[in-house]
Design a protein that fits this description.
There is one protein chain. By secondary structure, this protein is α/β, with parallel strands linked by helices. The chain has 3 domains: about 300 residues, Catalase HpII,  Chain A, domain 1 (Beta Barrel), CATH 2.40.180; about 90 residues, Hemocyanin, N-terminal domain (Up-down Bundle); about 140 residues, Class I glutamine amidotransferase (GATase) domain (Rossmann fold), CATH 3.40.50. It contains 19 helices and 18 strands. Strands 1, 2, 3, 4, 5, 6, 7, 8, 9 and 10 form a 10-stranded antiparallel β-sheet that branches. Strands 15-12-11-16-17-18 form a 6-stranded parallel β-sheet, sandwiched between helices. A two-stranded antiparallel sheet has the order 13-14. Strand 6 and strand 7 form a beta hairpin. The chain binds CIS-heme D hydroxychlorin gamma-spirolactone 17R, 18S.
Length: about 700
Amino acid sequence: MATQKKTPKQSPTGQSAEVRGAGDELHQRAGGDVPALTTAQGAPIADDQNSLRAGDRGPTLLEDFALREKIFHFDHERIPERIVHARGYGAHGVFECYEPLTDLTKASVFAEAGKQTEVFVRFSTVAGNLGSFDLARDVRGFATKFYTDEGNWDLVGNNIPVFFIQDAVKFPDLVHSVKEEPDRGFPQAQSAHDTFWDFASLMPESTHMTLWQMSDRAIPRSFRMMQGFGVHTFRFVNAAGKSSFVKFHWTPVLGMQSVVWNEAVKINGADPDFHRRDLFESIEAGSFPQWELGVQVFDDAFADSFEFDILDPTKLIPEELLPVRPVGLMTLNRTVTNVFAEIEQVAFMTQNVPPGIDFSNDPLLQGRNFSYLDTQLSRLGSTNFTQIPVNAPRCPVAHFQRDGHMQMSTQPGRATYEPNSFTGVDGGPREVGESGHVPVEEELTGAKRRIRSESFADHYSQARQFWISQTPVEQDHIVAAYVFELGKCQIEAIRARMVANLRNVDEQLATRVAEGLALDLPDASPAKVATIMDIEASPALSLLGRAKETFEGRKLGLVVGDGADAALVKAVQKAVKDAKASMEIIAVAVGGATLADGSKLPADQAIAGAPSVLYDAVAVIGGEDGGAALGKEPAARNFLNDAFHHYKVIGLGSADAMVKAAGLDQKIEGDDAVLQLDKAASVQAFLQRCAKPRKWDRPIGV
Ligand code: HDE
């Protein structure tokens, strides 16, 4: 080790040159288990606090290779963020197959019951930049990389089963319209502005998707509580070469949950990392998120009989018509070690398919298959991005692709071409014939033309089906979302054009949105099809209709005041644990509250930093003062008020004064989702109520 400088000199601030900072005594030196700090070249660094200079107050020397290398690397730390889906979070896990699907596909993931395949999943919002907030009203990406025995399979889907556009050529337009407006640089992470709705209103094919986007699907409570969809029709191919069409569905084991819009807006301020924190914390706590993979498999006959084109990505196949067959379970069980190395560098590509999985002619999917390879080069900077650990297949890789920037592999062999007549290592790998990826044989005819198939022309019937499949509460939310978003458009003609499209979906929807905007109802926009169909409702499309009665995986916020009953607090803690939920104790100060028995209960949060929007349900336990002291805190009053107005289940133990201070004493009368907590039985009843849906019929409006 190089020697340290010996003579301490006084600096202008009165510090000696050898003073390292306030934490000096905590700052360990290398030795024992503590590794030596080195340069990237491995040279041990003697002093990482001071650069090399000529004279104590003189200029820094170019000779300081450690400084130069450190700053050089820092200057180049950033890579371009994803053009879409920039903000995301991910985790590792495993996919386990329920039963062999060999009759349908030769994909090794589905080869046998119990077969496990490693996965990496990245969830994302679409429009916002890397540093944007998690609860934007937006589609969520749900991208899964299966490291299969025969190469990576990337199922790069969304949490909504349809898309805005039918042809890849419109994707740059769509994305440009939703991103910040280029002449002003805002708004960030929002579709609520003129350019998005200008585009959407001029593209009737996006109407169906905007209904989903205006629904609570676009403000999920957690990545762990949302569905995922492959969106396009893909193909399964079995060992005999027989192919079937397939659509992929992910269903969360915890059930689906969303927040309400007013909550989303506030969560973005209180905890912009709400979704990533939730995923990280649940996995770290051993409460592993799980999704069941399901498939809708069908043949040409079904495709021909279906009233829409199965190649059209703005359409779905209702589950009532073609049930979803569960085929396996995915468990995310490991957080990343390094966010950049894994979540930022993971490269998903729709064209990554192993033998047994193939594409359909969906024009959007076909376009995606070009795009994803391109984007990796501009983001990751080298054609060798497949060697980055998170992207590297877990099966053997052997080919004649050589060299390039950042080549990590010392590929052996003499021949780097084929055919070649060398053998062994020198000859390199050989093609495998039929057992490799063989595209499905398909006869194709037709003139070369730029054309949109007539079978893609109905833009409204399924939008109408989605609308009538929603519960009244969900319909209210959709109307409110359109009114909010269109209300942010400064150009009235854009609002009117969108409402004109909505008239083709449902008159009541259009009228309600127009009323919300104080807009005269415009004429319906011309539809491309003669008849917009009245298809039967599909209950599977409603989130509330299929809500799962459980509090598992969700979070209670318990506000505790001084003098609270220790036994009651304990009973709540136990009940929450038994329900496999989590809880945070909130007190006026983070140091905690002093309970009636004199014990000190440390808090997880101070009330000022823990608004009730961060919790699925809330409870308040005050002391003998009935929570009067808590009620003096504006944040505590807001806590309760917001919880009430977000339809949440509320538990109250000695909290009358607090409730009064919040102005809720009259409002909670007769409200069966506001429960008194005084003994163990009442705590059970409270947790049981938490497992049920919110109190949607609380008379407070949307
Ligand atoms: Fe993507 N999309 N996309 N997309 N997409 C990207 O790839 C693109 C589309 C989706 O967590 C980009 O690596 C085109 C549909 C997800 O890393 C880019 C078209 C669906 C992710 C790209 C689409 C998606 C992306 C940006 C129309 C749902 C994030 C960075 C033809 C089925 C993956 C990147 C992750 C990312 C292009 C349409 C889902 C530019 C051209 C439809 C989940 O390649």
